[in-house]
């Protein structure tokens, strides 16, 4: 397994956001993490990336326990998070947003040119300030910035949130290319139909726990929805 | 013509203010810290240069080769052991920490060197008083030209560093969002350490020119902090080139004030600072 999360727990002050989550992700797999708002998906993703401290449990990456490593030390190992809300450096240009992540991760094929090939909508916007880009373009920059570290595991948090249907289509067309290339992806997605369409496996969280896990091809939307709303659990 | 000379001298004086304000402006821009120990740090560098020149007979220009990296190292330590902890305590704690540091530095310098005023001007030949006469009424001090040139060069170098280099991009990104830079493999604490080191290296250069153009004593830092802060505030907090224009505006205001009434030198500068600050607050543009 490329990623193993074992009995992972995380808190926001007094609130326990993630409760004893265990999940495994194989190399080259795309895992969709679904669940209602407040289910703990973002906290789990940030915990894997090292941006949120675990209060208990372990995170193993390629067999190595990385639980104690800070976020910046996980990037060279091959973990990259595209955070919810994009979190671009708004006062910097598209190009600088990409280049600031250059040569901080692993060696590999990703650079400004290959990111622009993967996200052609960025070509005319390279010198534009990130804060002036459209939502879809900003999301493409956020994913491109994560790719600049040549990750083995890409964590995508709500990448389609707030985007127009056209922008979401464009974005997922580029993501399918990444999936075909064998990049391992853990994807938090609110759109169940899309999550089931692109993922190999789907995991549903409710109130900090994993309440459903199955192969996307064998799972119906209704099964996930039942778990999503806690029906029958 | 006399008024033109006053204006010109004001511009050169502004160059000096910009030079001492560079470090303050840079640190505020990157870490959002108003370093109240800035003036004392500039004076510390001046004393280090003075000791090397006076006791070891090293030219102040050569001494800078040792003092600039020494101050940079001190900056890194300052960030690691004082500012890093202070930043975690909210906005007020760094202010109090640097205020405390200023008191410690001022009194440590007083304890070590006493209250005598000193200057590096005896160690730099006639540079500190030599000048060019442009007309019968207008003369330009060589040291003033050198200081203004150094301020422009230092601001230009830092601007280029921020715009064109890998560490510059990391500093800008960290200034915008220290949490997110960690997600792309940047250790924000290390960047802050480098930024503080660079800020204190700039303060060392400012200390050299303070000591060459005038006299200084252990308690000179307070006035330097006020002038530097006013230059930064007039130019726009965190804006590097704004600091140059802010310094020049302050210098010109002081000289024009003095030409109207010699006792109005300082008050004219303070009034300009207050007017700009009130204007910025009214327009909601306190930070650049």
If you compute it from the alpha carbons, what radius of gyration of chain B comes out, rounded to the nearest whole angstrom? 19 Å
Largest interface: A-B, 30 and 17 residues
Question: In this structure, how is the largest beta sheet of chain B organized?
Answer: 2 strands, antiparallel
Helix content of chain B: over 70%
Q: Strand order, biggest sheet of chain B? A: 1-2
Q: Can you tell me the CATH architecture of chain A?
A: 3-Layer(aba) Sandwich
CATH top level of chain A is Alpha Beta
CATH level 4 superfamily of chain A = P-loop containing nucleotide triphosphate hydrolases
For the residues shown, what is the average pLDDT of chain A?
92
Helical residues, percent of chain A:
25-40%
3D architecture notes:
The complex is a heterodimer of chains A (233) and B (288). Chain A has helices spanning 41-49, 71-74, 94-99, 112-118, 135-147, 165-180, 192-198, 221-228; strands at 3-12, 15-25, 30-35, 56-61, 64-65, 79-82, 153-157, 184-188, 201-206, 209-215. Chain A has 233 residues and is of the alpha/beta class. Chain A has a single domain (3-228), classed as P-loop containing nucleotide triphosphate hydrolases (Rossmann fold, 3-Layer(aba) Sandwich), CATH 3.40.50.300. In chain A, helix 5 (135-147) runs parallel beside helix 6 (165-180). The longest helix of chain A is centred in the last third of the chain and has 16 residues, at 165-180. Chain A starts with a strand and ends in a 5-residue tail after the last helix. In chain A, 47% of the residues are buried. Chain B has a single domain, classed as ABC transporter involved in vitamin B12 uptake, BtuC (Orthogonal Bundle), CATH 1.10.3470. Helix content of chain B is 76%, strand content 2%. A two-stranded antiparallel ribbon of chain B has the order 1-2. In chain B, a hairpin with a 5-residue loop joins strand 1 and strand 2 (139-141). In chain B, helix 2 (38-56) runs antiparallel to helix 3 (60-87). Chain B is globular and about 65 Å long. Classes of the chains: A alpha/beta (233), B mainly alpha (288). Chain A binds chain B through residues 49-51, 70-73, 75-76, 80-81, 83, 87, 89-92, 96-97, 99-105, 145-146, 148-149, and chain B through 166, 169-170, 172-173, 176-177, 179-188.
């Amino acid at each position: 397994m490329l990623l193993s999360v074992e009995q992972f727990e995380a808190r926001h002050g007094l609130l326990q956001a993630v409760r004893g989550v265990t999940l495994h992700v194989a190399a080259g797999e795309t895992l969709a993490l679904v669940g209602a708002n407040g289910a703990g998906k973002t906290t789990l993703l940030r915990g894997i990336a090292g941006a949120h401290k675990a209060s208990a449990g372990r995170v193993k990456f390629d067999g190595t326990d990385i639980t104690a490593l800070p976020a910046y030390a996980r990037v060279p190992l091959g973990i990259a998070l595209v955070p919810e809300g994009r979190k671009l450096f708004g006062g910097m240009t598209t190009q600088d947003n990409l280049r600031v992540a250059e040569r901080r991760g692993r060696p590999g094929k990703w650079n400004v040119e290959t990111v622009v090939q993967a996200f052609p909508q960025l070509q005319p916007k390279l010198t534009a300030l990130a804060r002036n880009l459209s939502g879809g373009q900003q999301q493409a920059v956020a994913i491109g910035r994560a790719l600049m570290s040549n990750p083995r595991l890409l964590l995508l948090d709500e990448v389609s949130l707030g985007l127009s249907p056209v922008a979401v289509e464009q974005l997922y067309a580029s993501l399918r290319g990444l999936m075909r290339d064998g990049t391992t992806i853990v994807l938090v997605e609110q759109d169940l139909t899309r999550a089931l369409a692109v993922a190999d496996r789907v995991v549903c969280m409710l109130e900090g726990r994993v309440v459903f896990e199955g192969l996307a091809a064998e799972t119906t939307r209704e099964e996930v929805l039942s778990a999503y709303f806690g029906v029958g659990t | 013509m006399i008024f033109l000379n006053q204006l010109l001298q004001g511009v050169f004086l502004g160059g000096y203010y910009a030079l001492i304000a560079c470090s303050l402006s840079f640190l505020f821009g990157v870490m959002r810290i108003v370093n109240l120990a800035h003036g004392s740090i500039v004076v510390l560098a001046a004393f280090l240069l003075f000791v090397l020149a006076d006791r070891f007979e090293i030219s102040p220009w050569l001494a800078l080769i040792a003092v600039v990296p020494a101050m940079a190292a001190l900056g890194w330590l300052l960030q690691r052991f004082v500012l890093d902890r202070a930043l975690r305590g909210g906005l007020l704690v760094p202010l109090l920490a640097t205020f405390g540091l200023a008191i410690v530095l001022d009194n440590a310098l007083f304890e070590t060197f006493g209250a005598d005023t000193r200057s590096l001007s005896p160690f730099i030949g006639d540079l500190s008083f030599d000048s060019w006469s442009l007309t019968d009424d207008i003369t330009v001090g060589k040291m003033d030209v050198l200081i203004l040139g150094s301020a422009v060069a230092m601001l230009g170098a830092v601007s280029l560093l921020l715009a064109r280099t890998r560490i510059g991009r990391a500093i800008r990104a960290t200034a915008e969002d220290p949490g997110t830079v960690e997600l792309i493999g940047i250790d924000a604490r290390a960047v802050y350490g480098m930024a503080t080191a660079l800020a204190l290296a700039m303060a060392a250069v400012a200390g050299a020119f303070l000591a060459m153009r005038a006299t200084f004593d252990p308690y000179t830092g307070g006035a330097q902090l006020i002038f530097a802060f006013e230059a930064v505030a007039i130019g726009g907090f965190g804006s590097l080139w704004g600091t140059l224009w802010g310094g020049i505006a302050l210098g010109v205001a002081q000289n024009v004030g003095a030409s109207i009434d010699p006792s109005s030198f300082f008050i004219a500068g303070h009034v300009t600072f207050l007017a700009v600050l009130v204007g910025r607050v009214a327009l909601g543009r306190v930070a650049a």
